[in-house]
Write a structure and sequence with these properties.
The chain is mainly alpha-helical and about 100 residues long. The protein is built from 4 helices and no strands. The protein has one domain.
Length: about 100
């Protein structure tokens, strides 16, 4: 087992928002697709997850966290994985363009 004693402690302020999330005690299947899920089932599940996010008091920090860590799966902060992937691709493209 790896020795993690030298790693920095978690900073509570970075994670405290999760305790107030509307999805905290919900079934994860609402937010993460099962193997082989296709439309229209996928679209219905994503829309249902987004409805939960729409009333969530911590939707912004959730969305920002998922973007920051480039979360590849699930609905986070009202964004689907496809929406997040597209946004991150645009940001990378814009950075490359502005750096050139």
């Amino acid at each position: 087992m790896a020795d993690v004693s030298r790693l920095p402690a978690a900073i509570v302020e970075h994670w405290d928002w999760q305790r107030r999330a509307a999805c905290r005690d919900m079934d994860l299947a609402v937010f993460f697709h099962p193997e082989g899920e296709r439309d229209p089932s996928r679209s219905r599940r994503v829309e249902g997850a987004k409805e939960v996010c729409a009333s969530c008091p911590v939707v912004e920090p959730c969305r920002e966290w998922a973007r920051a860590v480039e979360e590849p799966y699930g609905v986070w902060g009202g964004e689907s994985e496809d929406e997040r992937r597209a946004l991150l691709a645009r940001r990378r493209r814009d950075r490359r363009t502005s750096a050139a």
